[in-house]
Design goal:
The protein is α+β, with helices and mostly antiparallel strands. The protein is 32% helix and 23% strand.
Length: 435
């Protein structure tokens, strides 16, 4: 029976879920490692940042990466992971004829839901897929309808499922971006993270395997498993896929340097899908890190306000925090196109200019800056500032004019004083006795 109690939890997860889109990455890596896969999507789920995309919105065949959706729906469908499911012959219908990969659950076995979930993800067992699908929704066809409903619900706009196993069908398709979206959603489940991180798993005792059935990962055996395996830093698990039309596919995730990366690749050959993952994750571990390049409210500039008693200056601050996955040695520059001074009057919201933040010359963010204060015009200050400006531009003239003005002011006084002295001398001459 489907677990209706999970609806609220699922909806809350969706509210914090960010879709992978075809927008250009905020920073474009020019030296992205050479890969063999035709489809690539590299996305940081921790920071909601697309790092690289190659044909990521083009139609591709997902092969057994389809089983990520199968696991998601099964996890949401069952309350009790220890519930047993009887393996009926119809749960094997068509699998042998299609040469599908199977986990090895035989008719008459009664594995638990947990056993079957591990069987879906680790060995990519189509038998486990159909057992869970039939038990959850009554038929594989009904389960596939549910898969398409869930795809629409989480924003997989370029995906259509026609089966639950990923066996080839020309009408069964997705994109690298959609699979990254699905994988991010799946990783919100602690149980899925636990399963995907497991190298192997031993089931409960079965009729066909009294000692339990050993289920082994199709990816972990090739990764971080000694000198002859591919090395992937911070690798946390992945789901492979293969059909002849789909080629080798791989959805995986790894964590390092403050980043939680999801990588989806499609249509490679041999072990190219694992080699590509090794090359990409290694490159980003060595060269990239999550970096805070600007803090919200960080001071950018101070612009003087002229002709106003209300405020002397505007302090321009960074509107928001800028934190991105960037090369460790990226040179960060903050460039501003702002006036050297502002003349009142000024109203709150008036445009001032713009500020741009760049990494190695690439534009990361551009902000239009507006005034956050108002300032009234003062005629007195305006006259004072005009006078100071005139003086600074015409010092010699101003000094000459000042001297002339001083002379004009003092001349009457000098003449008056000179006149008084002249009269005094005349009086003294008149008073002299004659001889």
């Amino acid at each position: 029976m489907r677990n209706s109690k999970l609806c609220a939890a699922v909806l809350s997860l969706l509210l914090c879920f960010t879709a992978v889109t075809a927008e250009e990455p905020p920073y474009s890596e020019e030296n992205f490692p050479e890969v063999t896969s035709d489809y690539v999507c590299l996305y940081d789920t921790a920071n909601a940042q697309l790092l690289y995309g190659e044909r990521m919105e083009e139609m591709m065949y997902p092969a057994s990466m389809t089983k990520i959706m199968t696991a998601v729906l099964a996890i949401e469908a069952f309350d009790d992971l220890e519930e047993t499911i009887y393996i009926e012959p119809r749960m094997w219908d068509g699998l042998i004829e299609a040469n599908a990969s199977v986990a090895g659950f035989q008719p008459g076995d009664q594995p638990t839901v947990r056993d079957l979930l591990y069987g879906v993800v680790l060995p990519s067992g189509a038998d486990a897929v159909q057992a869970l699908a039939i038990r959850a929704d009554g038929s594989v066809e009904a389960f596939v309808e549910h898969m398409n409903e869930k795809a629409r619900e989480i924003g997989m706009t370029n995906t259509r499922f026609t089966n639950a196993t990923g066996l080839h069908d020309r009408d069964h398709y997705s994109t690298a971006a959609d699979i990254a979206l699905l994988f991010e959603y799946a990783l919100k489940s602690p149980l899925f993270r636990e399963i995907i991180a497991s190298r192997d798993y031993l089931t409960t005792p079965l009729a066909s395997s009294p000692g339990g059935l050993l289920l082994e990962s199709t990816s972990w055996g090739l990764i971080n498993n000694g000198e002859d395996s591919y090395q992937i830093p911070g690798f946390l698990g992945g789901k492979t896929g293969f059909t002849n039309p789909a080629g080798r596919c791989f959805a995986s995730h790894a964590e390092f340097n403050g980043m939680h990366l999801i990588l989806v690749t499609g249509h490679s050959e041999n072990t190219g899908h694992i080699a590509d993952a090794s090359a990409v994750y290694t490159f980003y571990e060595q060269n990239y890190a999550f970096r805070t390049v600007a803090e919200a409210s960080q001071e950018i500039a101070r612009i003087p306000i002229e002709d106003s008693f209300d405020a002397e200056e505007i302090v321009v601050r960074m509107p928001e925090t800028i934190a991105l996955d960037l090369p460790k040695d990226a040179e960060i520059t903050v460039e501003q196109d702002l006036p050297e001074a502002i003349h009142a009057p000024l109203s709150q919201g008036d445009p001032l200019g713009k500020v741009t933040v760049k990494a190695n010359g690439q534009l990361l963010r551009e902000f239009e800056i507006s005034s956050d204060i108002s300032a009234r015009h003062s005629q007195l200050l305006h006259f004072k500032n005009q006078a100071i400006a005139f003086y600074n531009s015409h010092k010699t003239l101003c000094i000459f004019l000042a001297c002339m003005l001083t002379a004009l002011i003092l001349l009457p006084l000098i003449l008056k004083l000179t006149g008084r002295k002249s009269k005094s001398k005349k009086r003294r001459r008149r008073r002299r006795p004659s001889r």
